[in-house]
Automatic annotation (TrEMBL):
GO terms for molecular function: metallopeptidase activity. Keywords: Hydrolase, Metalloprotease, Protease. CDD domains: MMP_TTHA0227_like_1. Residues 17-39 are annotated as: Disordered. The keyword Coiled coil does not apply. Residues 21-35 have a biased composition (Basic residues). This is Predicted Zn-dependent protease, minimal metalloprotease (MMP)-like domain. One of its GO terms (biological process) is proteolysis.
Length: 171
């Protein structure tokens, strides 16, 4: 037996031992090999939704009365949700978001992205981007989150239309 073959055998033995450990761990987690028997909650119950799905529902609910009132003016506007804002490599004290961003302190909550042309030359539509995680962190409960999202949408739609937020809200 050569020196290289012995080293290969030790490496092979280490790999086999590692695979055996993985198999044992799997057995401990799923002792009978059946996996989950079913969903914890039926899919039609609100508890089965993820946090992002619940937030999307809040956004749609808040957008509904605005869209009903301003449907014709908002045909070229999209509403999107991101988890967190994209931060490009810069120091926190040098961070500036721009005029199209609604922020709380230095944390952006929403942004109005105007229509334009992307880097590939494809025209893009105007869109309002809401940042889920910062909004959820600022809300005390579901009703507070709904009010906050509604107020942000009113403010962003008013900015898009060039109107006063009170006019857009209908007060």
């Amino acid at each position: 037996m050569t020196h290289g073959a012995a080293a290969d055998r030790r490496t092979l033995r280490a790999v086999v031992t590692a695979h055996g450990a993985q198999r044992r761990n799997r057995r401990r987690r799923d002792r009978h090999g059946r996996g989950l028997r079913g969903q914890l909650y039926p899919a039609n119950l609100p508890a089965a939704r993820s946090r992002s799905e619940r937030f999307d529902a809040v956004v749609l609910e808040a957008l509904e009365p605005i869209e009903a009132r301003w449907r014709n003016e908002l045909t070229e506007l999209d509403v999107a949700v991101d988890d967190v804002p994209e931060v490009l490599g810069s120091a926190p004290d040098e961070l500036s978001w721009g005029e199209d961003v609604v922020e709380d302190g230095s944390v952006p909550l929403a942004r109005l992205v105007p229509a334009g042309v992307d880097s590939r030359g494809v025209p893009t539509r105007a869109r309002i981007v809401l940042y889920r995680r910062p909004l959820e962190a600022r809300a005390r409960d579901g009703a507070d989150l709904s009010d906050l999202v509604h107020d942000l949408l009113i403010e962003q739609v008013a900015s898009y239309l060039g109107l006063d937020p009170d006019i857009v809200d209908g007060e």
